[in-house]
Amino acid sequence: MSGRTQPGQPGQPGQPGQDDDNSLHETPAEFMNAVATLTGRCDGQSVVRGPGAYAVGCTCGWTASAPTSAEGLRLARAHTGDD
Fold first, then answer.
1. Most CB atoms closer than 10 Å: which of 8, 15, 18, 57?
2. What are residue 65's DSSP bridge partners?
């Protein structure tokens, strides 16, 4: 397994109806490791405050700039189709 819990553990991925690839079931360390090693896919987005604007980015390489964090989040959601 790729750092995930064993199937069938109570309240964990592997139980019927749960998606083993859902990042909500990963620890922060597992998620960050996946984001760091799986470039080229839309596995993680960021909105980072910078001088005069927010830098918005995705692990696939997409980047944008936004005047506010809310606008940056909107752009990131639109990029991944989660708007």
1. 57
2. 55
